[in-house]
Prior knowledge:
- By secondary structure, the chain is mainly α.
- The chain has a domain at about 25-75 and about 85-170.
- It is built from 9 helices and 2 strands.
- A two-stranded antiparallel ribbon has the order 1-2.
- A hairpin with a 2-residue loop joins β1 (about 80) and β2.
Amino acid sequence: MCRLHLDHIGLLDEMIAKLDAQIEAMMAPFRAERDLLTTIPGIGPLTAAAVISEIGASPAEFFPDAAHLASWAGICPGNHESAGKRRSGKRRHGNLHLQPVLVEAAWAAVRHQGYLRSLCHRHVMKWGGYRSPTAKKKAIIVVAHAMTVIIWHVLAGGVAYDELGTGFFTRRLDPDRETRRLIAKLEALGHQVTLQPAA
């Protein structure tokens, strides 16, 4: 029985090697686009090949902007509104081959320091913190959406990914506005706040 299992594993490894070689041969005309996509955190050569096989090497021909691509992939909130009432924002099914690839790439991307990890952290905390599995799953969809937008811009512009850094969201804060917000929060908790300029 062990010999049968080992022979089966060997056969599967041989088939995987053949498929990898075939994918590599078919990706030869799109090597430049694949190399551009691999500059995005979480996207390796195989993921890049899967993305290119689904949306093409020049997505701007089929999708006028990144929002259309995200909607087609099913990586954006749904829009269910009736009589002025906002109902479920459940996302649509989208492309069944591209969507799981983007979600897996998002899980890989948040393991690297940078903008995408900061984006994930920001949304996890917004929806309940790291103890909530739902918050983490919703945040990963946000990251997958951001990656879809990045993919469109990288392929449409023919430029490598430009990392915005972990401090992107803190740099955008207006210091005066943030100060007023924090003072209001402390006063709501019953504290009296006196500000002194730092030495």
